[in-house]
UniProtKB/TrEMBL annotation:
Residues annotated as transmembrane: 12-34, 41-60, 86-106, 136-159
Keywords: Membrane, Transmembrane, Transmembrane helix
Comp. bias regions, Low complexity: 118-131
Stretch list, region Disordered: 109-131
Protein name, entry field: Uncharacterized protein
Highest taxon of the lineage: Bacteria
Length: 181
């Protein structure tokens, strides 16, 4: 994909990544740590994380197309290098979202479907708030959720900051123009 309505696709697609990745990260944290959110948001979280994952390589590919059509500066090179680090984080985020969904579905199956919104959750041997695998698995999944959410959001920030520097450094004046445009 090269252009959308005459504009480089990268500068439009990047907005999807900038919104979807942090939103997915927030939802992953909610689903990992808040049972009421888990029951209501586990499916949207899984779907949104996969959609974010799909947009990352599309945006990267569009960025590589654009890279061949702009001046090759150190700032563009830095942005390109950092941009390549987003895909592993997006994959990890989708995997964690799928693990959360899988644990939720297993917990719902074990509780006989009582894990519906407002219903009691299963407890007993091998479960923690209705989550299969016990406390150790719950803690490990929670830690993975925190690491993946924080890493993904930080990576989006780093990529966006480097892209803004590449696009705008030397392109504006510190002084406002006086007079008609």
């Amino acid at each position: 994909m090269s252009t959308i309505d005459g504009l480089p696709a990268h500068i439009l697609l990047v907005h999807a990544v900038v919104v979807l990745v942090p939103l997915s990260a927030l939802l992953i944290l909610l689903v990992a740590f808040w049972p009421a959110a888990r029951r209501r948001l586990v499916w949207p979280t899984a779907i949104l994380s996969v959609v974010a994952l799909i947009f990352v390589p599309l945006t990267t590919e569009a960025g590589e197309w654009l890279e061949q059509r702009v001046a090759r500066t150190p700032l563009v090179s830095t942005h390109t290098e950092i941009g390549d680090t987003m895909l592993p984080w997006a994959i990890a985020m989708a995997v964690v979202a799928m693990v959360l969904l899988g644990r939720h579905l297993l917990g719902s199956r074990r509780s006989g479907g009582r894990d519906a919104p407002g219903a009691a959750t299963a407890t007993g041997p091998g479960t923690t708030s209705g989550q299969p695998g016990g406390t150790v698995v719950t803690v490990v999944v929670g830690l993975l959720a925190v690491v993946v959410a924080a890493g993904s959001v930080f990576t989006v920030y780093r990529i966006g900051e480097s892209g803004a520097r590449a696009a705008w450094t030397g392109q504006f004046s510190q002084q406002a123009r006086v007079g008609p445009p």
